[in-house]
Description:
4-stranded antiparallel beta sheet; 10 helices; 16 strands
Amino acid sequence: MNFLPLAKKLIFIAPRNRGSESHINTLRATLVPIVKIYRTAKGIIIDHNDEFFLSAESDWDHLVNRTNLFQKISSELKSLQPDKDLRSTLSDNLLAPIGNQEIWAAGVTYLRSREARMEEAKDAGGGDFYARVYDAERPELFFKATAHRTVGHNQPVRIRRDSKWNVPEPELTLFISSEGTIEGYTIGNDMSSRDIEGENPLYLPQAKSYDGSAAIGPCLLVPGSPIDPASVIHLKISRGNEIVFSGNISINRMKRKHAELAGYLFREASFPYGVYLMTGTGIVPPDHFTLQRGDEIKITIDSIGTLVNTVA
């Protein structure tokens, strides 16, 4: 079921007159198996190239926390039959793709994030901290959320009542097994109170970790190879019928490597169920922008899908 060598060969020999980047991307999407898994109230649903299967495994933690997750799911698919009715099950029964995992996050991994953090903290004298961590060997890593503080697709995120400047942070999020291997990817929204963090960098936990401060979903992408570094993160914030902010950035603009971040996270910490790691944001709304209750946040990442949340 691993068609990656064939896909690479066919892409390489594509005729020049049809060898545009878009054509190559179309070939790649067609030939490389796409596997996504959804956690739902009806069980774990596998999406393989837009066909849907109900997994025989009912325990999310047991299924995902392993090395070679792609091979495990590929093997199971051989014994399953597609069920077209499962597609409609997703819309009504979808849960956040998290069991007993923690969510951690990396900060200042994009240049734009470095600039924004320096600006918000300059009055408190902390701006230099962010310049230093961007250039340092050791990344910034911090605890973000437990499962009960995390919401999924179409569930409400929150802004703090004691904050006046709040933004979403759209982030590619890694799923890392308890062995430290990157096994999948999802979309993350690292909700942040910029005024609290800017007042004093030591207030970071309060600015970042509170009920409804993290959203992930809608699925866990389990590819046969690392995610395409040219994949783009898109953010759109709507207020009523108006788009009040939009932006995008490709994940290859990130300074840190995914394996580097995972390696630092696992240096002196263990995660018996695996762990999610948000990898930082390169999309930052202007300083005059703040979220309001009722705003819709839509984050799309190529190959994974779209995560939608409304501010409660």
